[in-house]
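// run 5 | inverse folding | seed 20
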C-alpha cells in the first residue's frame, strides 16, 4: 500500500467547477485540493505523484444501469462481474449499479443473495444493486422496506415482457405506494408489453422475421403511452419515478410535461440511442441482430430530442444498460425469428468516451458530461458525495483523461467479453489514461493494474436528487 498519492497539474472537472488544481489522496479518500501553483499546493507531499499536466482529472464514472451475468431468453449476458467491471474500469467507470433479479414465486432476498454471490470477490471496481421486482405480493412489499434499510434503495419494474418480468398496473401501483412510504425509488421499463406482443405475433405471421422488425413492433408510441401511464400511477401513489433507457422523442415529451407540472419524475437515456439508429437494426445478413435491445433503437431524428433533453435536464442521466450477448451462438438464437434474439448491447467500456465525443461535437459542455455520467447518477441513487465528485472526503475514484488522444472503437481492442462492438470503426477524441479506485491504480498509463476483489459492495442511501 502506498501512503499518500498526489495528482498534480491537471484540469479538475466536476459537475460544478473547472479548476487547475492538485489533488491529495490518503487512505483511499481525497483529503485536499489546492489550486495549482499556490503555496497550499506546493506544500503537498506524497509517496506517489501522478503527473496530469495537459490532462483532465475527473471523477470516476458511475454507471447506474448494468446487467452482468443476466439470464435472458435461454442464455446469459456474456460479461461476468469480473470481465464486466474490468472493462468498465478501462472506460473510466469506477462504480456500477447492477440489477439483482427476483424470479416469480421467489423472494427478493433470494434474488439479492444470488447476485451478491455472483459479484463478491470478483469485481475490479465498486458496485451496488438495484432490485428487479417481478412478483408483487404482500411479502414482497414488506421485503422492500428491509432492502431500503440495508442500502438497496431502488426497485425496477417492467411494463414489458409479459410472463417474465411484467407487472400489471395494480402491482405497479402497490409497489409505488410502498416506495412512497419507505423512501425507495421505482425505476420503470416503460413499454406497453401486452400490445407489443400482439404486434410481434402479427409481424411473424406475415413472415417479417428480420432484426429490423424488432424496432418496428416496439413502437415509439407504445413507449410514450407506458411512460405517461407510469408517470400518472406514480402521481397517484405520491412517489418519485425514474424511467430507464428512454429512446423515443415522444417519451421525452411525456417526461418534460410531467416535470413542468413539478412532478418528481426523472429520465435516463443511453449512448446507443444517442449514437445509433434503426439504420443499424436494418444492416443485412443478420448483422442487425447486434443492435437488438429494448427499448429499441429509433430513427435518427429522435437523437436531437434526446440531446435536447440532456441539455434542458428533462433527462438527467446517461447509463449504458450494458447487457452483452455474443453474435455467434447468442444473438444467432433469433435467426428466422427476431423475437428470439437476446435483447441487449455491450457498452460499459464506451460510455465516458462517447460522451466526451459529445463534448467535442458541441452537444453538451464538459461539466454537463461529468454531471450526467458521474454526479447525478451518484445523487440519484444515494452515493454522493462518496462517489461522483472530486472533493475532500470523497472516495478517491479518479480518472486521468487525455482529451486529445484519438482512438478507434473496435471489438479487436475492447475489453468487454463480447465478440463485436456496437461502435465498430467509430473514431473518437479523448481516452482514459489512468484510473484510481479508492486511491488504488486499476488502469496505469493504459495498462491494467487492478485485481478481481478490489471492488467492494456499496450500500446506498435513498435518492438525494429529490432534496
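// decoded
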Amino acid at each position: 500500500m502506498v501512503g499518500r498519492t498526489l495528482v498534480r497539474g491537471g484540469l479538475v472537472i466536476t459537475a460544478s467547477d473547472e479548476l487547475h488544481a492538485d489533488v491529495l489522496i490518503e487512505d483511499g479518500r481525497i483529503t485536499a485540493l489546492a489550486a495549482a501553483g499556490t503555496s497550499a499546493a506546493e506544500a503537498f507531499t506524497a509517496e506517489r505523484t501522478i503527473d496530469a499536466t495537459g490532462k483532465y482529472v475527473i471523477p470516476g464514472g458511475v454507471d447506474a444501469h448494468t446487467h452482468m451475468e443476466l439470464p435472458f431468453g435461454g442464455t446469459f449476458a456474456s460479461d461476468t462481474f469480473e470481465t464486466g467491471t474490468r472493462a468498465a474500469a478501462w472506460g473510466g467507470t469506477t462504480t456500477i449499479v447492477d440489477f439483482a433479479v427476483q424470479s416469480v414465486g421467489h423472494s427478493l432476498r433470494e434474488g439479492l443473495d444470488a447476485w451478491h454471490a455472483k459479484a463478491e470477490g470478483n469485481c475490479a471496481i465498486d458496485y451496488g444493486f438495484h432490485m428487479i421486482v417481478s412478483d408483487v405480493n404482500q411479502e414482497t412489499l414488506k421485503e422492500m422496506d428491509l432492502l431500503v434499510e440495508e442500502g438497496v434503495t431502488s426497485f425496477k419494474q417492467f411494463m414489458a415482457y409479459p410472463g417474465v418480468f411484467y407487472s400489471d398496473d395494480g402491482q405497479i401501483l402497490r409497489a409505488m405506494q410502498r416506495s412512497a412510504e419507505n423512501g425507495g425509488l421505482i425505476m420503470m421499463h416503460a413499454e406497453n408489453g401486452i400490445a407489443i406482443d400482439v404486434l410481434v405475433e402479427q409481424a411473424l405471421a406475415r413472415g417479417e422475421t428480420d432484426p429490423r422488425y424488432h424496432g418496428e413492433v416496439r413502437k415509439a408510441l407504445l413507449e410514450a403511452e407506458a411512460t405517461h401511464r407510469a408517470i400518472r400511477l406514480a402521481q397517484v401513489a405520491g412517489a418519485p419515478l425514474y424511467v430507464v433507457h428512454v429512446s423515443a422523442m415522444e417519451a421525452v415529451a411525456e417526461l418534460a410535461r410531467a416535470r413542468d407540472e413539478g412532478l418528481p419524475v426523472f429520465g435516463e437515456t443511453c449512448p446507443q440511442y444517442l449514437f445509433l439508429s434503426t439504420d443499424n437494426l436494418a444492416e443485412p445478413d443478420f448483422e442487425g441482430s447486434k443492435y437488438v435491445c429494448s427499448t429499441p433503437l429509433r430513427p435518427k431524428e429522435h437523437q436531437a430530442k434526446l440531446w435536447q433533453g440532456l441539455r434542458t435536464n428533462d433527462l438527467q442521466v446517461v447509463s449504458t444498460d450494458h447487457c452483452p450477448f455474443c453474435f455467434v451462438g447468442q444473438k444467432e438464437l433469433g435467426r428466422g425469428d427476431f423475437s428470439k434474439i437476446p435483447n441487449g448491447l455491450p457498452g460499459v467500456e464506451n460510455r465516458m468516451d462517447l460522451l466526451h465525443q459529445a463534448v467535442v461535437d458541441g452537444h453538451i459542455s464538459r461539466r454537463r458530461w461529468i454531471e450526467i455520467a458521474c454526479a447525478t447518477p451518484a445523487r440519484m441513487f444515494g452515493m454522493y458525495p462518496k462517489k461522483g465528485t472530486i472533493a475532500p472526503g470523497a472516495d478517491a475514484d479518479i480518472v486521468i483523461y487525455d482529451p486529445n488522444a484519438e482512438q478507434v472503437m473496435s471489438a479487436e481492442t475492447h475489453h468487454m467479453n463480447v465478440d463485436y462492438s456496437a461502435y465498430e470503426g467509430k473514431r473518437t477524441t479523448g481516452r482514459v489514461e489512468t484510473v484510481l479506485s479508492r486511491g488504488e491504480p486499476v488502469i496505469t498509463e493504459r495498462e491494467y493494474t487492478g485485481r478481481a476483489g478490489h471492488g467492494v459492495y456499496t450500500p446506498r442511501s435513498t435518492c438525494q436528487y429529490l432534496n
